Amino acid sequence: xxxxxxxxxxxxxxxxxxxxxxxxxxxxxxxxxxxxxxxxxxxxxxxxxxxxxxxxxxxxxxxxxxxxxxxxxxxxxxxxxxxxxxxxxxxxxxxxxxxxxxxxxxxxxxxxxxxxxxxxxxxxxxxxxxxxxxxxxxxxxxxxxxxxxxxxxxxxxxxxxxxxxxxxxxxxxxxxxxxxxxxxxxxxxxxxxxxxxxxxxxxxxxxxxxxxxxxxxxxxxxxxxxxxxxxxxxxxxxxxxxxxxxxxxxxxxxxxxxxxxxxxxxxxxxxxxxxxxxxxxxxxxxxxxxxxxxxxxxxxxxxxxxxxxxxxxxxxxxxx
Length: 320
Description:
- The model has no long low-confidence stretch (mean pLDDT 92).
- Helix 4 (161-170) packs across helix 5 (177-188).
- The strands form three sheets. This protein has a seven-stranded mixed sheet with strand order 8-10-7-11-9-12-13, with helices on both faces.
- By secondary structure, it is of the alpha+beta class.
- It has ten helices and 13 strands.
- The radius of gyration is 20 Å and the shape is globular.
- The chain has helices spanning 3-10, 59-76, 95-111, 161-170, 177-188, 194-199, 214-225, 240-245, 248-257, 273-280; strands at 21-23, 31-32, 38-48, 80-90, 115-123, 127-137, 152-156, 206-209, 228-232, 264-268, 287-294, 300-304, 307-308.
């Protein structure tokens, strides 16, 4: 099967169709209609076999995850997901693998109302790159640079489950049968907090999604906003599955540095905390206030029961 037949068969005709897409897959470029009064938000994510996923992972899950992690970046900026481009590098043409991968990609794109509008296919080591584009009302995108001293620090959902799922897949940690489905779902099939991100446009002073772990990611907000942060590790939201599967110190380590949670991390000024509770309650997503922004730029302080919490970061970074 050649490159163009591959594109035509698996990626040209399935998935969501948007009325603001004039030309999608099949031409030298896509033609898109961006609404008046809106800004375009663009993000890119790459997943490489052996680094971001196991080569024998379920391709349907890979298709889902590739879309979800990109859409999660849009959600963190308060954007409405709209369009996706895919750069797919394959060592060979495996039709069963492609069929399952495309199914996972298309069903997840349709769930988030995104349309695949183009991309590229090449031969080489297995690598998946996606560019996601979204739209946000002009001037309303949430960045990492707006946090101020005194702001409260929040996270959505629970932390550490995906990292435990990775350990389970690696065979280095045991999880009881009653928790395995939940833990593996969090690892292989993350969810993007799209609706919640849009609701935060007029509430959050800064935001980002948690991909590399809370300990690393909060420092991106600190650097961009030129502030410090104090986090109470006793307030980290931990699932029952994580607490039942780990000792307390390991659970905190996974929540701080495990990564791949794809929850939202955001800050809220004191004056908007009431609005947060009122506007976000219909979404049914747990929110946890875990700390506050401080004035010592670059200083991250961890506490537990008002005492300093000694911690050595063990998270993953490329090229380190």
